Amino acid sequence: MSTTDLTSQHNDPSFTSLWDELNWRGLIQVSTDPEALREAIDGDPITYYCGFDPTASSLHLGHLVQLLLLRRLQLAGHHPLGLVGGSTGLIGDPRQTSERVLNSRETVAQWVDLLRAQVQRFLSFEGENPARMVNNLDWTSKLSAIDFLRDIGKNFRVGTMIKKDIVAKRLNSEEGISYTEFSYQILQGLDYLNLYREYDCVLQTGGSDQWGNLTSGTELVRKTEGATVHAIGTPLITNSDGTKFGKSEGNAIWLNPELTSPYAFYQFWLNTADADVVDRLKVFTFRTRKEIEELGRLTEEEPYRREAQKVLAADVNTLVHGPEATRKAIEASAAVFGKGSFEDLDEETLSSVAAELPHATVPAGEHPVAELLVATGLSESKSAARRTLKEGGVSVNSRKVAGEDATVSEADLLHGRFALLRRGKKNLAAVTFEA
């Protein structure tokens, strides 16, 4: 995985207040005392944190919102703590619908390492305000059940806990909620208390759907230490048509390139709707207000150019996967849209392209193009395929195919196993030849 270039990142100097910039970017949906937060964020350096639970082997787009907020605060001189939840990951925060399946301790420990490496890429560990990584297993593992109940649990009121949105929903569901998941908010509150005591941490960020867990920490610090600390809840990103952001055909868009390839990642951003692209530029890029407003103007006046989408896709892909992976993704995208050659793509990139297209796998050897058109769904029947071939409307690996009896052999394949079939200008499919 490529290292993120942190030196090119800057907050927008046209804003005299970071608090104002964060609001303009739409990053604050809910918070504790806004005026006190403005004073803290725009004042002397403070320590702040965000937690990431290892409930999967990779972070996804929802986490990217938090990672970039952490980075924006660090660029302003504040001190970030990146927390990976080795203990809370063993429990899992309550889901909207049903109880989580608990993962083994070994699996969670492996995921902690993977997520820590991902978080570290987005923060600087050098300079006057270097980031620190922490693991809540370091302090919770030392607590006995009696100490946890006496020293921490006594500060929580059940009546308040059951009013939290997610808990209330689960209590009213058929399955209900276990004591394990019910107690999650206490564990997260303990994180804040420990970080306040050890690092003088006074701000936690997280998604607005986690607001109940965020405020459990602010309340615990208030009750035990008599101190006022803060929380920011970022909005849950949704598309203008009401669909959930970051989902592609039911699958999350992961930051790990082995789970979501840089090409697929690039395509996801390139397909952003015109109505959403300006908001995405604000949240997910370090483009200035002036640059984003200009891209918004181009979207309104010349939407066919999709200039804002191209900038968004390139910026976020570079941020997550690096410039080289982005260059390859752009070349692959050009080939897909008929403005480049598939022959110029390396095997890994071509494999990523094939995975995103209608696809067929066939045995190694010579195959009639007509059969491949049917196998990939580009033609309904062999007779229809042969008519298209006769009319000259088919290309294989960016080369026009002549004749209705045309075949594809090993010599025609890219990297010895791929054939990209195009019918007309827009219909594209992939064939993998297996030995």
TrEMBL record:
It catalyses: tRNA(Tyr) + L-tyrosine + ATP = L-tyrosyl-tRNA(Tyr) + AMP + diphosphate + H(+). InterPro entries: aa-tRNA-synth_Ic, Rossmann-like_a/b/a_fold, S4_RNA-bd_sf, SYY-like_C, Tyr-tRNA-ligase, Tyr-tRNA-ligase_bac-type, Tyr-tRNA-ligase_bac_1. Residues 352-428 form the Tyrosine--tRNA ligase SYY-like C-terminal domain. CDD domains: S4, TyrRS_core. It is found in: Cytoplasm. A motif ('KMSKS' region) lies at residues 244-248. One of its GO terms (molecular function) is tyrosine-tRNA ligase activity. Gene3D superfamilies: HUPs, RNA-binding S4 domain, Tyrosyl-Transfer RNA Synthetase. The keyword Transport does not apply. Its EC number is 6.1.1.1. It is an enzyme of class 6 (ligase). PROSITE patterns: S4. GO terms for biological process: tyrosyl-tRNA aminoacylation. A motif ('HIGH' region) lies at residues 54-63. L-tyrosine binds at residues 49, 184, 188. Coiled coil: none annotated. Keywords: Aminoacyl-tRNA synthetase, ATP-binding, Cytoplasm, Ligase, Nucleotide-binding, Protein biosynthesis, RNA-binding. GO terms for cellular component: cytosol. It comes from the Bacteria. Homodimer. PANTHER family: TYROSINE--TRNA LIGASE, MITOCHONDRIAL, TYROSYL-TRNA SYNTHETASE. Belongs to the class-I aminoacyl-tRNA synthetase family. TyrS type 1 subfamily. HAMAP family: Tyr_tRNA_synth_type1 (MF_02006). Catalyzes the attachment of tyrosine to tRNA(Tyr) in a two-step reaction: tyrosine is first activated by ATP to form Tyr-AMP and then transferred to the acceptor end of tRNA(Tyr). This is Tyrosine--tRNA ligase. The gene is tyrS.
